[in-house]
Structure formats: structure tokens, C-alpha cells
């Protein structure tokens, strides 16, 4: 199967129906939803809606089966060892908080956690709060001048007290892809675990957690063509099994007496209360669709657009690209600063051209500080974008520069 851009774009209702056409370039914030996910959610709520795990009638059993089938689909997308390693959460943020709380409970004052200066706040602030609760030492992996996580610095940073290295797979600001193999090698040499924030990676194809050799992986459904309100924490089962619950309530217990409770095995131990059932089913459908796509073709398509964007931006007066300017080890997420212009003003003018672009600090303020900025504009490309979207942005920027300067 080869990649058919027009046919694929037509499978995204919001884009297919947009009048006038929408040049949607804020995919790193939220991608558009694929029709398979919408259909799966609608089918679920129309034909199989019931609570899961508890009911003994056929409808409830069908709902439970659909939810567990979604878990199996996530496991296949990630090449997990077993579906029992997949915990449904409400998103990447809640998955990362789950690790900081539950794995974090085994950490003692003086233990070290290493994060990078390129992290999204969701993979930074939970560790700062853990530091407040337990007295862990939080260390920072530096970034290179162009914003890449500098894994070589781990040699001088990771000691025998290091318990966890937590890094993003792909930066939501620069698009740079992290050298996870180097992180894993350094972590193993000191006996530390590795957590990878995959929020910006999953929209660019299936992930192989076994090949990565990591311990935890977190992502959100709404960034990989699936629903909002659903996300995943993948972790090795032995690790999950050793972790205490995070949230407590129905569905995560063994036996409850007035004196105390025992807890279910993972993943149920970490899924207290009624989960977002239809959303999990929708995510399963989106990931199954993603698994069937010709990723070699799509990668070439995305890189062509990225190249056109980088070249076009480089020609604009006063535009500074943040992050790598080559195509090596990166995804098509490009942040840039226009000298003298506020990112929000840039977005407002571009909106009149039908271009949806992001401006702000992108929840990565330490990285912005590294670049000496409060904020920047960001164009992030998904598989359904076309050269017309890139051209609309570049033409719109000429107008921006004329109007605002
Ligand atoms: N990590 C990264 C790298 C992200 O880009 C984001 C979302 N911008 C998150 C974590 C948090 O994702 P969510 O808001 O869906 O929980």
C-alpha cells in the first residue's frame, strides 16, 4: 500500500468539511481525529454502552470485551510484552503523574531523578513535587545549542543514587528526537530506570518499547489521531506490580474491609473508577489504523514538508528557527521567533489566512529560557498536511511581517 494524501485527508471529517479550507498546523497540541476513532466511539455508545468489569449481563460483557480489545490494540501498537502492561489514563500528563506518585513512593531522600531541560512541564513539575514530598535530588540533562538533549552529559551526571532518567522521546518545541539508546545505556550502567514521554512521537508511527529497552512510556490519544480524555502508561509488568496505587476507588481493589484493603493486580490497580470507556475504544481504533499505514512513505512525505518549511522560514527576514535546521533525527515540529513580533499577534494575523498556528511557551519554559525567549511560534505537521498548508503559512508570514512591522 502506498500513501495517498488526498484519500487520507478525506478520512478526517473536520478537515474534509472545513470551508474555507483549514491549514491546520497545530498538530503537536492536538491532531485532528481519524474517522475510525469517531466511528468506533459512536458504535460503542450506540451498541455496547454499559459499565465494564462489574456487570454479568451480555451488554456489560460486550463493553468489557471492547475495552480489553482496545488495550490489546495499544499493546500491539507499542509492541508491549503483554496487554497487562498497558494502563489507561486520561492522558500523558496523568500517566506521568502516576509514575511520579507510585514509582516515586519507593524513592528516598537523596535518591536522584534526572530529567532534561527540554521537557514539557508535564514531565518536570511532577518530579519537582516529588522532590518537595521526599527530598529526592532532581538533576538536569543539558541541551545543546540547537536544543537537543545532550545524552553524553549523563556520564558526569548519573551516579549510583540515580533511580530514574525521564526524558521526552521528541521535543514539542524543536521536534528533535532523543537518542534513547544512549539514555538507556547510561541508565543501565548505574542501575536506573528509564521513562520516556512519547506524547510527540506516537503521531509519527508505531513504537517498539521492547526494542527501545525502556521501563515506562507515556502518551495521549488526542495527539495521535484519537480521542481526547484518554492516554496510556505502558510499564514493565514487574515494575507496575511493585507499585502502590495512585488513585483509589472502585475497580482497583481486591477485598475491602473497614480496617483496610487489598489491591488488584495491574493494570486494574491503576484504573480506579469508571474509565473513559468509549474513548479507550476510539484510541484502540486509531492505533490499529496507524499500525496499517505505510510509514516509509509517510515519513518521506512529512520530511518533504519539513524541508519546504525550514527553507521557507530561513528566507524570511528576522526569522530565527529554534532547534535543529537539518532533517536528521527529528520530526516535523518547528518553532521560530520573528524579531520584534509577539507570537500571539503572529497567530492572529495568520488565522485570517486560515492558518492555525501556535504561539507561546509551549509548556516548556526551561527550554524557552535556554533560547533566551519567553515564547515562540510553532508549526507542527501531521500526515494529512500538504504543501498547500506550508505555502499558506509562508505566504501568511509575509503578510504578518508587513502588517505588524
Ligand atoms: N509531553 C509532551 C512532550 C507534550 O507535548 C505534551 C502536550 N503538549 C504533554 C506531555 C502533555 O500531554 P497532555 O496535555 O495530553 O496530557
Could you write a compact summary of the structure shown?
The chain has helices at 5-9, 13-17, 35-47, 58-78, 92-103, 125-134, 154-157, 180-190, 209-212, 237-242, 277-291, 295-314, 343-352, 365-370, 387-404, and strands at 23-24, 86-89, 112-116, 137-141, 162-168, 193-197, 216-220, 231-235, 253-257, 260-263, 319-322, 333-338, 355-356, 358-360, 376-380.
Written description of the protein model:
The protein is of the alpha/beta class. It has two domains: about 5-25 and about 295-405, Aspartate Aminotransferase, domain 1 (Alpha-Beta Complex); about 40-290, Type I PLP-dependent aspartate aminotransferase-like (Major domain) (Aspartate Aminotransferase, domain 2), CATH 3.40.640.10. The chain has 15 helices and 15 strands. The strands form four sheets. Strands 2-8-7-6-5-3-4 form a seven-stranded mixed beta sheet, with helices on both faces. Strands 11-12-15-14 form a four-stranded antiparallel beta sheet, covered by helices on one side. A hairpin with a 2-residue loop joins strand 9 and strand 10. Helix 4 (about 60-80) crosses helix 11 and helix 13 (about 345-350) crosses helix 15. The longest helix is centred in the first third of the chain and has 21 residues, at about 60-80. The chain is globular and about 70 Å long. The chain starts with a helix and ends with a helix. The model has no long low-confidence stretch (mean pLDDT about 95). The site of 4'-deoxy-4'-aminopyridoxal-5'-phosphate has 14 residues, from helix 5. 4'-deoxy-4'-aminopyridoxal-5'-phosphate (PMP) binds next to helix 5.
Amino acid at each position: 500500500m502506498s500513501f495517498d494524501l488526498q484519500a487520507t485527508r478525506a478520512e478526517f471529517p473536520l478537515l474534509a468539511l472545513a470551508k474555507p479550507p483549514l491549514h491546520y498546523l497545530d498538530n503537536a497540541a492536538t491532531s485532528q481525529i481519524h474517522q475510525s476513532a469517531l466511528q468506533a466511539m459512536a458504535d460503542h455508545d450506540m451498541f455496547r454502552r454499559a459499565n465494564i468489569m462489574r456487570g454479568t449481563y451480555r451488554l456489560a460483557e460486550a463493553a468489557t470485551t471492547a475495552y480489553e480489545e482496545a488495550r490489546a490494540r495499544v499493546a500491539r501498537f507499542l509492541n508491549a510484552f503483554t496487554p497487562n502492561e498497558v494502563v489507561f489514563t486520561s492522558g500523558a500528563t496523568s500517566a506521568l503523574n502516576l509514575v511520579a506518585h507510585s514509582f516515586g513512593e519507593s524513592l528516598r531522600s537523596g535518591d536522584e531523578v534526572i530529567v532534561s531541560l527540554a521537557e514539557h512541564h508535564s514531565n518536570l513539575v511532577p518530579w519537582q513535587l516529588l522532590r518537595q514530598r521526599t527530598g529526592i535530588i532532581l538533576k538536569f540533562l543539558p541541551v545543546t545549542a540547537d536544543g537537543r538533549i545532550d545524552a553524553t552529559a549523563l556520564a558526569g551526571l548519573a551516579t549510583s543514587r540515580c533511580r530514574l532518567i525521564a526524558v521526552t522521546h521528541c521535543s514539542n518545541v524543536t521536534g528533535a528526537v532523543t537518542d534513547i539508546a544512549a539514555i538507556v545505556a547510561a541508565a543501565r550502567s548505574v542501575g536506573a530506570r528509564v521513562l520516556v514521554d512519547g506524547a510527540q512521537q506516537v503521531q509519527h508511527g508505531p513504537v517498539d518499547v521492547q526494542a527501545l529497552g525502556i521501563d515506562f512510556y507515556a502518551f495521549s490519544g488526542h495527539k495521535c489521531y484519537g480521542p481526547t480524555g484518554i492516554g496510556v502508561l505502558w510499564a514493565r509488568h514487574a515494575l507496575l506490580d511493585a507499585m502502590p496505587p495512585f488513585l483509589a476507588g472502585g475497580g482497583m481493589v481486591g477485598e475491602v474491609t473497614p480496617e483496610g484493603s487489598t489491591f488488584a493486580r495491574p493494570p486494574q490497580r491503576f484504573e480506579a473508577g469508571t474509565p473513559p470507556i468509549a474513548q479507550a475504544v476510539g484510541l484502540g481504533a486509531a492505533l490499529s489504523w496507524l499500525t496499517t499505514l505505510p510509514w516509509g512513505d509517510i515519513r518521506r512525505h512529512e520530511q518533504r514538508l519539513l524541508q519546504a518549511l525550514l527553507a521557507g522560514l530561513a528566507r524570511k527576514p528576522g526569522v530565527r528557527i529554534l532547534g535543529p535546521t537539518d532533517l536528521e533525527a527529528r520530526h516535523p515540529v518547528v518553532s521560530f521567533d520573528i524579531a520584534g513580533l509577539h507570537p500571539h499577534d503572529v497567530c492572529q494575523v495568520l488565522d485570517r489566512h486560515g492558518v492555525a498556528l501556535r504561539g507561546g511557551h509551549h509548556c516548556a519554559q526551561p527550554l524557552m529560557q535556554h533560547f533566551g525567549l519567553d515564547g515562540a511560534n510553532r508549526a507542527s505537521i501531521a500526515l494529512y498536511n500538504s504543501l498547500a498548508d506550508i505555502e499558506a503559512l509562508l505566504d501568511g508570514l509575509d503578510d504578518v511581517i508587513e502588517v505588524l512591522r
